[in-house]
Here is the input.
Amino acid sequence: MPELKQDEISLKDIIAQLVEWTRYLLSKWVTIIVVAIITAGLGLLYAYKSKPTYAASINFVLSNSSSSYKGVLGLASQFGIDLSGGSDDVFAGNNIISLMKSRRMIQKALLRKPDGQTKTLVNIYVEDFKLDKDWKELPRLANAYPFPEIASKMSMVQDSLFRDIYFKVAENMLDVSRPDNKLSVYKVVTTSKNETFSYYFTRYLVDETSQFYIDTKTSNAKRNLSLIQHEADSIRVLLGGTIASAAAETDKTFNLNPAYQVRRSGVAEGQLHTQALGLAYGEVIKNLELAKITLQKETPLYQIIDEPTLPLLVKKPGKLLSLIAGGFLGGFLICGFLIIRKILSNLDIKEAK
Here is the structure.
């Protein structure tokens, strides 16, 4: 029973303390309202002054469709040619995200021009952030702008400045994700204050990355196809020459007495060479067709699911929401300040006693 009474007294003390704090805050209602109105005005001012941002989003599929074919490898192995195309996917899964956020891919995208414009995306970025004006004030950076359209033509200063731009774009503007790890669907979003930059940078980045990925995946299959095609062309030339030579020998022995077999040996040899080259050419043609099929199967699947369209969706803080949020935040902070000040004041009074 005493413990229950103690608990009851503690609960009453808590309620009494809450009532006291409520009365204290109500006594300061003028201060709280004034501060809330000021912060609400600041929130509204922020909504008016803040510049809109534009977000461009692309969802696309990029996956490896290659596989091993024992029949293809068996037929090609007799010529010592590898048609496997390689089964290791160095860009599998989340590696695509790292590839897309690499400097090489972002640089290629930034050095391209939007349709109908004369400036590259990196120069548009520089002008938007007024970096060119800041650079002109420094003698070492005075000639850094504009950036050339080819990366190899950049000076050391431009390359250093471009590196800073790359980090800012990759960290602050670009978001690459894989919504479902079980699927090969990727999402790329670029958010900036320039609608043109957001739209074209997203498109160009996806284009450059997918093309690099496809070229890398199909390089071995393309090389093998080129080798077999060269072999087929060479054998076809030799076969054509052998057929012509055999025909000439046949013409020389036309109406020849059958008793003269030695003079017919050239015809027999020519026919033998023709048959051998014909068989070899037939096998090469088979492998050539198999190489073409392998190249098609090694080519990754690339398909855009959703892409941005102009005009882009504008993102800007709402005036009403900013007004309410500013007032609420200001009221909360001033209440906290008043309570802390009251607690410190009570502690000073107790110490004085």
Notes: The chain is about 65% helix and 10% strand. Confidence is low (pLDDT under 50) at residues 1-7, 66-73, 83-87.
